Amino acid sequence: MRIKKLIFRLACTGAYGLLFTMPAKAQATLDNYIEYGLKSNQSIQQQKFILEKNLYALQEAKSMFLPDVSFGGSYTKTHGGRTIDLPLGDLLNNAYSSLNKLTGSGAFPQVQNQHILINPDNFYDTRFRITYPILNAELIYNKKIKGQQVGLQKEEVSLYKRELVKNIKAAYYQYLKAVYASDIYISSLTLVKEELRVNASLLKNDKVNRTVVLRSENEVSRISASLTTSQKARDSARDYFNFLLNRPLTDSIMVDSSFSKPPVDSFSDQGVNQREELSKLSIVSDINQNLTGLAKSYIIPKIGTSLNLGSQAFDWKFNGSSRYYLFGVNLEWNLFAFGKNTHRINQTIADQQSIGAQSEYVRLQLETELDVRKNSLISSIAQYAAAVTQVKTAQTYYDDELKLYKEGLAIYIELLDAQNQLIDSRLRMNISLYDTWIAHAEIERATAGFPIK
């Protein structure tokens, strides 16, 4: 009996001693896992690629305010088609003949009627074209919208990171819960095996009946089955945790035994103003305002300039006569579009009103979630405190029953009841401890309390 009592006390103190003596601040192991997960998670990487795409779109919008230079050319070879008839001979030859007679010379030769082909033949035209927008409200609003979309995607990345942090913490706590549950069952299995050995010895000496040994054997089988179940739950928790970190599922996980009760008032004064969901809605509202401005920009004329520098001539000639420049100022002003612009403006205004109503609803929803999370944390801490007390009570109850059983003043079923109460209370204490930390992670998520870089 002394050996059995010693084994049980060692199991009680060995499995849980660190849980209640170490401060809650030492969470370096979990912090390192979170840092690793934020760098390696595939969902975060996908969101970063989208952010990179939006940054390039912003650079594209900025480049539209710069001059645009293009090169173009054409060559035309033709035969046949329409012509312009010029009766130069009919108009001039009689006059030239009279002038030759009067002057007694041949200074005025006869000319032929001309048939000029309209399509140019063996003609080239090459040019550099430079365009520059002087005034274009659409480009201005487009640049603003692209910049706001970059900010929107940054908030989306932060949102994914914050959700991942919560999931990593919860998965780690679930893993620790399963690890320590397995330890409890291992220590309990050692205990019931020792009880079986002792009861078998008592049976040989006719101190107990056969039923006591059979019940001891059943306890060994029951605890063994529970141990197997808890080990499988531990493996499943390990696989999910490694999945979040984008690691091989069977990689080992370092166990941080520094978790005690979390502070109940750590988030008491924090609200939901830091939530990315509200920031996103604010940015969407700003984008919609610029979309309204974009729809109204039709009232502002578009002014731009263009300059062509090129050469054009027949038979590939290139000289001072073939080179040319062409400069122009362009004006475009949409004066009337049968109400299309007005309808477009009304759509953006309706969207703005919808976003405003959605923002109020989301804020109320987030505040409600925060209140629920706070209540859940307080409840979890209360349950944990009660579980600690129950372990102490169950330990005292077991010690008393063990003493009575040793003296022959209690039957085995009473000792077994005390033993099961102690095992169950230890399991509940283990569960409630990490449930408090899961609730802590939930409220940290609800307040956006974790610092995201």
From TrEMBL:
State the signal peptide span.
1-26
Keyword Transmembrane in record? yes
Q: Which family does it belong to?
A: Belongs to the outer membrane factor (OMF) (TC 1.B.17) family.
Asked whether the UniProt record includes Transmembrane among its keywords, one would answer: yes
Location of the protein in the cell: Cell outer membrane
- GO MF entry, a single one: efflux transmembrane transporter activity
Q: Which PANTHER family does the record match to this protein?
A: OUTER MEMBRANE PROTEIN TOLC
Its GO CC terms are: cell outer membrane; efflux pump complex
Report what the protein is called: TolC family protein
Keywords, in A-Z order: Cell outer membrane, Membrane, Signal, Transmembrane, Transmembrane beta strand, Transport
